[in-house]
Amino acid sequence: MEDDSEPEQRSWAYLPDVCLSRVFHWLNDTDRSQAALVCKKWSCIMCSASLWRTRTITFYGRPSKACKLQLQSSLWYVKKFGVHLECLEIKLSNPCNPTFTQRFNVTMRVLFSHLAKCNSRLACLSIKHLELDRFFWKNVTRTRFVKNLAAFLKKIRKQLDYLNLKGARVTLEEGCELLNSLSCLTNKSFISHISIEDFFRLHLPIYSSPLFHQTMSKFHSLVTLTFNYNCISDELLDILREHSAHSLCTLNIKCHVHDLHGQVVWGMSWANLVKRAPKLNVNFFFERVMRHDHLARILLVEIPVKSISLRSCYLHDPEWIMRATLTNLLPAYCHVLEKLTLELNNNNEFLDDELLQLILSCKKLLFLKVWAFLNVTFMERLLQNRAERKCILTTIKVRLYTGQRDTREADRLLRDIYTKFKHLIDSELNYFVIAYPTL
Question: Is the pTM of this model over 0.85?
Answer without folding.
Answer: yes
